[in-house]
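Hi D.,

Good news: the full-assembly prediction came through. Inputs first.
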Amino acid sequence: MSTPVAADVIVVGGGIMGAATAFFLRQRGVKVVLLERGLVGQQASGTNFGNVRRQGRFLPQVPLANRSRGIWGRLNELLGEDAEFIATGHVRVCFRDEEVGGLEAHAAAVREYGLDLEILSGNALRDRFPFLAPGAVAGSFSPLDGHANPRLAAPAFGRAALRAGATVVENADVVGIEKTGDDFLVETVGAGSYRAPVVQISAGVWGGVLSARFGEPVPIVARGPQMGVTEPMPYRITPVVGVYSSVPEEGIYFRQVKRGNIVWGGGWRGPALPDIQRAYVDPMNTLRQLPMLRRVAPALGALRTIRTWSGIEGYLPDDIPIMGPSGKVPGLFYAFGFCGHGFQLGPGVGDVMAELIATGTTSTPIAPFSITRFATP
Amino acid sequence: MGRFVRLAETDRPPVSLEIDGTMVTALAGDTVQVAILTNGFALRESEFGDGLRAGFCLMAACQDCWVWTVEGERLRGCSTEVAAGMRIVTKGSTWQIEPS
Amino acid sequence: MADRTVLIVGAGPAGTRAAERVAAAGLRPVVVDEAAANGGQIYRRQPAGFRRPAQTLYGFESGKAVAVHGAFAALGDRIDYRPLTLVWHLWESEAHLLTGTTASRQQYDALILATGATDRIMPLPGWTLPGVFSLGAAQIALKAQGCAIGSRVVLLGTGPLLPLVAYQYARAGATVAAVLDTSTLGAAIRALPALAARPGMLAKGLYYTAWLLKAGIPFHRGITPTAIEGTDGVAAIRYRTADGIERQVACDAIGLGYGLRSETQLADLARCDFAFDAVARQWLPATDADGRTSTPGVYLAGDGARILGADAAEIAGKLAACAALQDLGIAVPDAEMAAYRAALAPMDRFRVGLDTAYPWPAHFAAGLPDTAVVCRCECITAGDIRDVAREKGAPEVNRAKAFSRLGMGRCQGRMCGAAGAEVLADALGVRLEEVGRLRGQGPVKPLPLATGIAP
Ligand SMILES: Cc1cc2nc3c(=O)[nH]c(=O)nc-3n(C[C@H](O)[C@H](O)[C@H](O)COP(=O)(O)OP(=O)(O)OC[C@H]3O[C@@H](n4cnc5c(N)ncnc54)[C@H](O)[C@@H]3O)c2cc1C
Ligand SMILES: Cc1cc2nc3c(=O)[nH]c(=O)nc-3n(C[C@H](O)[C@H](O)[C@H](O)COP(=O)(O)OP(=O)(O)OC[C@H]3O[C@@H](n4cnc5c(N)ncnc54)[C@H](O)[C@@H]3O)c2cc1C
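Then the structure:
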């Protein structure tokens, strides 16, 4: 067997988390190898809805989301490629009077974190967003949020990391990680072996299999959010729209891309099969989403859907990710299980993890995401 | 005057419809595509600015013949039978985003 | 046993004969077709109120057309026929149906997919101009609507449909400005031994060609099309002759096609295994000789499995029905199935012959200028595909789709899939099979957002 390739850091998993971490590690001059089982950004990071949304998040996550939003704003110059991020604004609308209070309370809470939301209701709401159904009672508008193209963002990070000197290995399925002495030895199928004193596991839903090998199992489950897209229409719906509701099935969201297609998701989740790396759309879910879309924007009823898809995402019971150092093994770091809202966070997670790995600390608080919250005594 | 040329079955009853604001005559049993292309030269504009389209496969596979009605509905030209009083638009779209 | 549901998708020759065979076993199959009438492509019916006789519509094939239509009509109530109904998805032994804007589900114990084929297209600059239609479209305009696609028509491409449509057009009184065939006489001669497997078919092909020559219709073989000219519509076609001379023919319509491609989306949604078919240069669902796929209970018949033509489709329909019945535990005579298998054997040899005689011009993909549109739905050019291959390292078609939007449009890659894969393989310098195939995604055709679930 050939000698393992040596590096400072090995990043396992080339979704947006791993690719961004590799890129930002190179910005700090760290010698990094990125190992991806398939192609960079092919899983959740390449199949998601594309929402770059901060409002509606778990409050302690807002600083990380803010940091990420800052990077989204200069992503193209940073990467030298266009990931189609546009700050269109994001509006959360509700259809019940009793839900307005929730929107207002959230707006007040995130203001403490520097995120300013505008609460609109009645005619003011419809004047601003004329496509909304008359039943929309109130909306919370986040003007600097927006959307980007998930098919492009993570691969763009991967290529930028490569150009910046990272070793990016695709079709490298990591089957073994072992700590021997100061170094981790990482074995792949088909792409050789690697050695480094630091390893980051950013393997999406598959991260749980790897953390368990280090005695840190987590209750992660795979699910597939259900997506769809219409034929291209004249560009008339600018913000990303999401429904705020206590009924999960009503939680539809959609956005129109500049080319004209309207992408949507939400409500139901479908079967995701990590073992074969596939997630499917149950056609019943699509059919149930349609009235929810019409409920928010009746004009969508004139259109046709031309494609549906899903992706495999890892969810934890408390709906927040695992991020930070291992509680057990020095040199081991985690960033996985982003519970359906990691696309927006990706650039920020990469930046924070690179900072943490390179300096031992980070200026953005991530303590709530520690894997130790699942530790069994 | 139009793109398609009728060679047979011309003794069917006429059907009146409106295309881009002008009343025209088609024949009962025509598809919407035939009704338009025997009275004109294109069905629609490409969404991406590369000019006019007149459909392609005529067998409901290519989806290149969707047209708008004045009422904001969409019809697949090759597989929808023409009906009297239809009001078709071949330029731009009639998609209204405001709820009526 | 009679409570077992056999669902047949497609009411063309394959679906018709499958339904007949299933009904003969005492079951009442559900037959779904998105078209308004049965008949499928070759035996497509004209709308009510049209009066041309079968002989005019179907020529040499009129006897068979009448027989297939008659067989379907005779089934009457012994089948549950649902016209104007699209199967838009398959999920856990249920077909998702759409009639108008009403969605419903149909459970099945066996599913026979007889979904037919569409034209196989190699783009060329200008092919999105109004007036350019598929070769099949040219035939449908005439057969189902009594129209020619223009007043000066060029038929371009290759395959048995090319001389046939030219003949049908000329016979119906259309002006055929030229027939431009990319295949050569040499290839046709090389294919003769295999084509002789079906002497009748060969004779018909020769008859159409001879008729066209006698009628003085320009028929050029071995040509290479270079571009379609025009601004708001087709004005001319430019091509190179076999001797390399640049030529131009004025016309206002073009029928374009290079044989057929199987309609395999539903087999993909049924999660059937696919294998690369070197003859078709297409990934096709893998089947056994009887039409069984890798998914238990799912069968393929007709052009949707392999392009063998209408006669073979009828036999394959019966054979797939027998296989389905057998797997449901209903006795089927071995001799019957053996006879169908034997009848299909020469058809497959003929298929290889057809491909030798009328080869798909894969090499045109390399010659497409960067500005040529390949995906007409999304307006994706050959240059866009080369760019994602070379700059972004897309090693296979799904990645190329993700980066470039190739095949992401309304048609789900039906029109651009074959050529797009060739352009990608050429740009990467790999064999076609290495770039894989576009994964199927529901809905197989656009689904209205106004759709409601049937109560
Ligand atoms: C359908 C869908 C819609 C979503 N919508 C949004 C949204 O609108 N906004 C938002 O913010 N978030 C959204 N999300 C969530 C977001 O996509 C994810 O949180 C984010 O992409 C996670 O990135 P990741 O890098 O952790 O995971 P992934 O993208 O899944 O990457 C993990 C990678 O690790 C690789 N890997 C796994 N095991 C190994 C191994 N052993 N060896 C080598 N490599 C390995 C995998 O191949 C994979 O590429 C959505 C998710 C889905 C599925
Ligand atoms: C335009 C065209 C013209 C042709 N002309 C000739 C000719 O002149 N001579 C000749 O020998 N061969 C011709 N062929 C080849 C011909 O298709 C076959 O010989 C024969 O029709 C194949 O029969 P089939 O039953 O397999 O499929 P088809 O006859 O194509 O029937 C398939 C049926 O399935 C239905 N269908 C498909 N998908 C769905 C779905 N998702 N939901 C519901 N219904 C569905 C279609 O509406 C169609 O009616 C032609 C092919 C085409 C495409």
